[in-house]
Structures are given as structure tokens and as C-alpha cells.
User: Fold this.
Amino acid sequence: MTDSPAAVRPSPLDSPREADWLANIYQPNATNLTIRAVIVGMLIGAVMSLSNLYVFFKTGWSMGVTLTACILAFSAFQLLQAARVVKKPLGVLENNALTTVASGAGYMTGGGNMAAFGALLMVTTVRPDTMSMIAWFALIAALGVFAAIPIKRQLINHEGLAYPTGTATAETIRSIHEAASGAGASKTKWLAGSAVFAAILTWFRDAWHWIPGTIPLPLTLAGRSLAEWTLSIKAEVVLVGGGALMSFRTGWSLLLGGVLTYGVLAPSLVERGIVTAVNYKSIVAWTLWPGAAILVASGLTSFAIDYKSIARSFTGLTRIFSGGKKADEGIATLECPEWWFPAGFAVLSPFVVFLMVWLFQIPLWAALIAIPLAVVMGFVAARVTGETDVTPTKALGPVTQMLYGVMTPGNLSGNIMSANVTGGIGLHAADLLTTLKTGWLLGAKPKHQLYAQLFGVVAGAIVIVPAFNLIIPDPSLLGGEAWPAPSCVVWAGVSKAFSDGIGALHATSRTAIVVGLALGVALALLERFAPKPLRTYVPSPSGLGIAMVIPGSNCIAMFLGAALAEVLRRVWPKFADKTVVPVASGLIAGESLMGILIALLIVGGFIAT
Assistant:
């Protein structure tokens, strides 16, 4: 799969960033997607999706895929070369394509997919057949892939959003391949050293339990320890690494949001009797509403301001039947054609709508609404992920459940699976953009990564549904000691809460939603139109919104990472250039790899929980 280098000519329509990319980063002659990359990527992604399935039902979280996959791929090909099974070494961009395949498969447990499937089985005795659910998850993920097309150039090429995991993956791929050829030794040592440190720390913490997962702060608030309000120090360096790859503005916004949420708002809610218990689950059941409102309002406002970039995605609609007119110069020859977005949705959406009506008894009109709503949520998820490295499906899923609670009251399964549509599409749009960020930094061909992602989501869908049926044959196990499944419990609870429509919400929650919407719009407008010297002091709406739906300890850890990176950049800029990204990447990769290994050892009975 190659594009002719001679066909890529500069265009007046290219932005300065794009022109620089074409001239200095793009690698027209390098190998990208290959058959062996597809096969190995699907195998690695399938294994990682199995690991994530276990971890998800134990903890409610899905572990990172891209960093782990690129290192596993490189190591696998090194061994295959040594064994003379393969002759040609794995190239940088081939590894990037392989990682994109693996990411598409490995993330099939996220985006509300398994949360929705588990919650569905908790609220109804109906278990859809395996083939129907494989088709369901594959179609939703594929729609997410196509939803990323119209916003890729805006978010990555023009705005240059961070996508921290994508940036870390690019640095990891570059470092390990440079090390193999004798270059980049310094960065590779920093990367390797921090990865080993993170792996050892994770083993002592999660396998031998010699290190506590949470370090409490010796202070109290409203008569209770700060740890009870989720304000503590987490011994999870993956959060510190993620924070180091964020902008400092996003980092301090997370800290501000976490302190306001758990240090000011939560005690007030408990004192007034609105929240009846001091723990994360009880607090976030209320705070997720204003947090989600901030995320949705700011995301929609940002895209409304950039309405032209959205409108352009529909300009190719007439080309669906004419075969499309391919641009003949500039970066457009490498990007996915804009008409692919509406074409993909035109082809796949009818199948999703059919399954919504047939499997979950969702009225046809309500199923039709889910598709454009999912696109909007995908845009929001993509932007938030680019800024914070957190895909806000835990916030956006309940928004959809609320809307469907109003539109189809009493339909519990329809409420849950409609939210699965928006969450799944949002996650896979954000996931593809994360890998496209990696490709942008390495000089890869965007079209090849879209093909790679589609291969991956098919592999992931084929694996996770049968695996779920095998490890959890009895849905009554969900929510119990063996399989706590916290995300499933939350989705099932929200569905039941909205079975009578929006009136089921506490009056203060409805007020908080209105306040959150207004705040999200205001922050997005200030972010764009405030005088330039003042913009750095405007809190990031993504940071504030995310802070209201994750524990305060996560906010603190990510802020520490962002602050340390910022200090290094200001005080020792040359040292920071050499160390910040490699060290942050190593922390994320080391903990991710060791976390998966520990999960597998627990499954095998080699380590006690």
C-alpha cells in the first residue's frame, strides 16, 4: 500500500504546519501498512483485549494499548529475526501501522462497550446472541473510525492538540528503533530507565503489595480525612507520565477542578444531605452531571466557532455516487478524502439502526436520532482526549442515557445501548486520532492508519464477545466480590434512574447541569476570544470537566506530572527536551506492560489478589 511521492506537491491550501510536515517529516518511501503488520497487530490486539476485559470487570478501567503494542511488536520481530523466521526488520512506520491495528482491537473493551453489555445483562434477562453482538460492536467501532475523518486536519494538522498517549507512542517507537541502529542512545536510556522503574514499582504495588496504591495526606476536611474525599497521592506513575505530556494549563485546570469538586463542592453537598456518603462513587453520582455539561457545552461551542471545518466534511456528500474527486496536490492527496465520512455513515448507519430496533426494541425514530448525536459526542470526545488524554465516555454516556430516558421512558435496554452507540463511536474516533497523532509525528500515511484501525476493530469484536461469555457465564456475578464491574453498576444505575425521564434527577442536579452548560460555553469563548496575554489564565474547560468525573487523587497526580515538566522546560530547557517525553513515555509504557503481566498472572492463579 503506497502513495506515489511524486503526486505530493505543495498546495496553497496547505497550512504552514502542513507544509512543514510535507517538507521535513513525511516519509514517502517508507513502508507503512503490510500484511504481516496486520496479522501481528490483530494477534497482539486480541491478546490485549482479553487482558483489558479482565482488568475492566475488576476495576472499571481499560488499560493503555498503543505504547504496550509498539514495544511488544518491536520485541516480537527482534525475536523472529533472531530465529530467522523473518528476514526484514520491522520499520518505524510499519510498527506504527501495526500499533494502530492493535489499538483498534485492544480498545474494544472501552468506550462503554463492556460497561453497556454488562449493564444490559444486569437489568434484563435477555442475552443477545454472540454473532449479533460481534456485529454490533464492530459496526459502532467502524462508525467511530469514520467520525474521525472530518476533524483530523483541524485537531492535529492545524491546532496541534497534544494527544499525550499518541505523542508518547511516537517517541517510544522512534527511540526503540533508533536504539536498534545505534542512534538516539541518550533518549533510549531515559526511556528504558523510567520504564524499568515504573515496572518495578507496579510489581511491588500490585503483585507483592509492598507499596500502597494510595498515600493519604495527614489532613482532615469537615471531620474526615482527605483520602475519604479522594484527595490523596496515588502511587501510579502512569498518571504522572500522562500529566507530563499535557499542557501545563490543562494540568493546573485539573488540579483546580479536583480541589473545587472534592474539597469545596463535595463537603457542601454532604452537609446539605444531597450526597449521603463520603466516597468517590456517591460524590461522582452528583458531580458527573455538571462535569458532563461543561465538557459537552465547551466542545460544542468550540466546534460551532470552527463551523467551517465541520461543514467541509459534508461538502463531499455529492461525491458518494460520483466516485469522489481526489485532490491532486498538497497534503490532501495523503489524507482520507472528506467524502469518506458521510459515505461511511450512509453505508453503516442503517445496520446499526436495524440492530437497535431488532435487538433492544428501541423505536425507529429514537434509533435514527442516535446516529447524529453520536457524531456530536465523537467530536467532543476527540477534542477532550487531545487536550487531556482522557476520553470522557464516563461523562458522555450518562448524557445520552438522560436524553433517552426522556424520549423513551421505561426502556432500560434501549437507554443503555443508545449510550453505547455514542460512547463507542466517541472512543474509537478518539482512539484513531490518538494513533493518527503518532503517525503525524513519525511521517506516516493517514489513509493506511484508517485501514489499519478497521482491521483492528473487527479482530477485537470477534474476540471480546465470546471471551465475555466464557469468563462470565452468569450475569448475576457482576457487581459481586468476584467481578465488581463498577462501570457496569454505574451504567445500570443511571439507566434505572432515568427510566422515568429527567424528573428522576435531584433538583440540584438539574440546576448544576444548567450552570455547567453556561460555564462550558463561557470558558470556550474566553479560550478563543480573550486577549492573548489572558488566555493562559483561563482554565481549560476540558480539564475542569474531567476533574469532576475522576477521583481527586488522579487530578493531583496528573498535575504533578504537568508541573514537573513545566519546571524543567523553563529552568533547564535543553535537559527537558532530552528527557521529558522519553521519561513520561517510559513511565506510561512500564506501568502498562507490568500491569498487563500482573493481570495475566492473577488470571493464571500465580498471584493472589
Observations:
- The chain has 24 helices and four strands.
- Strands lie at 214-215, 220-221, 224-225, 233-234.
- Residues 29-323+338-603 form one domain.
- Confidence is low (pLDDT under 50) at residues 2-6, 312-326.
